[in-house]
Automatic annotation (TrEMBL):
InterPro entries: Adhesion/Biosynth-related (IPR050904), FAS1_dom_sf (IPR036378), FAS1_domain (IPR000782)
Signal peptide: 1-16
Keyword line: Signal
Organism: Daphnia sinensis
Protein name: FAS1 domain-containing protein
A UniProt-annotated Pfam family: Fasciclin
Lineage, uppermost ranks: Eukaryota, Metazoa, Ecdysozoa, Arthropoda, Crustacea
Span of domain FAS1: 22-153, 160-291
Keyword presence, Electron transport: no
SMART domains listed in its UniProt record: FAS1
Amino acid sequence: MKLLIISLALCTCNMAIPIEPSTTSLLELLNNSGFSELKEALVKHNMTNIINASEPMTIFAPSNEAFKNLKQNPWTKNMTHAMMEKLLGRLVVLRRKLLPADVRNEMIVDTVSNEKLRLNVYPKVRTVNGIMVVMEPNVQNQQVIIYRLNRFPMAPPPGRDIFEMLNRRKERFSTLVRAIEVANLKDTLKTGGPYTLFAPNNEAFKALPEARLAKLMESPAELKSILLGHVINGTYFLGALLESPELPALSSGLNKIAVNGMNVTVNGTKVFTREGMIAENGAIHVIDRVLLPSNTTAPPSV
Ligand SMILES: *[C@@H]1O[C@H](CO)[C@@H](O)[C@H](O)[C@H]1NC(C)=O
Ligand SMILES: *[C@@H]1O[C@H](CO)[C@@H](O)[C@H](O)[C@H]1NC(C)=O
Ligand SMILES: *[C@@H]1O[C@H](CO)[C@@H](O)[C@H](O)[C@H]1NC(C)=O
Ligand SMILES: *[C@@H]1O[C@H](CO)[C@@H](O)[C@H](O)[C@H]1NC(C)=O
Ligand SMILES: *[C@@H]1O[C@H](CO)[C@@H](O)[C@H](O)[C@H]1NC(C)=O
Ligand SMILES: *[C@@H]1O[C@H](CO)[C@@H](O)[C@H](O)[C@H]1NC(C)=O
Ligand SMILES: *[C@@H]1O[C@H](CO)[C@@H](O)[C@H](O)[C@H]1NC(C)=O
Ligand SMILES: *[C@@H]1O[C@H](CO)[C@@H](O)[C@H](O)[C@H]1NC(C)=O
């Protein structure tokens, strides 16, 4: 009922708004700046009205290549209209022309899709929800600034904090979830942060001697200190790992990040770079060994 009223209200005010010539020029600007796929998608999904305002705006524009990949990827090639609306809405920040100099590390901005984007500034790269963003050169007119992305940013559904992301994937992280609860770190990972968690999957815990795991599960304090060795203060997506030789863990040690091409390891343990996740309060990287302080120098098991 409420929804219906809202949508009726939207229709009414849409009709009341005079046609803005600026929309055409913004669409033209997108098209002429090499974002013709984005322009077409906005038209196709009836979303030109969102860029119809004569207000400041920031657009994170996926390249035509990104659209091509989206259409070829078996997971995303036949997205519904509603899904596309969300994906496109996520790219647009209203009422704000965010200049490169305005961007701060861990800045959160609201988007048309009601999802949030997390902006990160690292020494060499900047990211939007973990996707590298090209800040310069950008395209702009008086009101609007357009930044180029080479991929579509994902966004966590509302309420998916780091703990909840794991809790929703019990088939892979049930032991970690239990360990977090035993160590009394659930609240930290739900409401603290932003953090980066190196998340050992169930195989990682299975690789521990059974008696050791059983004992750990009965030693909240030890478990807590071990788990905090997996948590980094701040959001480090893959792009950031690639340029961070070491990261401070909450347990106060420095985790060593080694990079060889796209093979990334943390203290010698392989990071599953294709399985990274974004949570409302940070990033999650999957690993298949538990990082134990006394065993960190051992070579990765093959
Ligand atoms: C701008 O919005 C108005 C009102 O919603 C609409 O009639 C018009 O077609 C829009 N312009 C474009 C180019 O989409
Ligand atoms: C969009 O841009 C291409 C060049 O990239 C141009 O050929 C085409 O005419 C443009 N379309 C519109 C509607 O402006
Ligand atoms: C876009 O709007 C037009 C008319 O306003 C409608 O005919 C068309 O089905 C809409 N397209 C989508 C994808 O909803
Ligand atoms: C999605 O694509 C597959 C082919 O890859 C097709 O068989 C299926 O019908 C499509 N589903 C929808 C909802 O369009
Ligand atoms: C995390 O970093 C922020 C910003 O640098 C700092 O204010 C905060 O105290 C740090 N938290 C922990 C637990 O180290
Ligand atoms: C990355 O790891 C794979 C095996 O996981 C290996 O085959 C490949 O050679 C490694 N690449 C580099 C650059 O070390
Ligand atoms: C990772 O290795 C460093 C030393 O290289 C150590 O200080 C740190 O405690 C280790 N982290 C964990 C979680 O074991
Ligand atoms: C270190 O690893 C070895 C096997 O690689 C294992 O036997 C030992 O229990 C581990 N040490 C700790 C403290 O977990």
